[in-house]
Amino acid sequence: MLRPPDRGGTEDLRVSLAIALTRNPSGVLSLTGPNLSIEQVCTVPFIEPDEKTIREHKLKVKAALRQVTSEALSSKKQDCLKAIAK
Q: Which pairs from 19-26 meet CB under 8 Å and 24+ separation?
């Protein structure tokens, strides 16, 4: 019997990946696809963050994405930059 997905666990995974994006952008981008969109990980993962927290996270993501040089991830990198700029 299949169990319904654990929504809390799924959200925890997305938050963890959004944070991990600042440390391992290639690894996180490589996990995105039909079941995990760029928009779900290229976001500010904090509940009710202040402007400073938002700005700092976005800067960390942009800096980390500059380290992604793989041609295979180029499109995902650009999509992530667009998503984090929103």
A: 19/45, 21/61, 21/64, 21/80, 22/57, 22/60, 22/61, 22/63, 22/64, 23/64, 25/61, 25/64, 25/65, 25/67, 25/68, 25/77, 25/80, 26/67, 26/68, 26/70, 26/73
Which pTM was predicted?
A: 0.85
Question: What residues does each domain of the chain span?
Answer: 9-85
pLDDT at 1 over 50: no
Longest dimension (CA), the chain: 46
pLDDT tens, position by position, 11-53: 788 899 999 999 999 999 999 999 899 999 999 999 899 999 9
Q: How many CB atoms lie within 10 A of CB 26?
A: 17
- Is the Cα torsion angle 56, 14, 32, 38 positive or negative in sign? negative
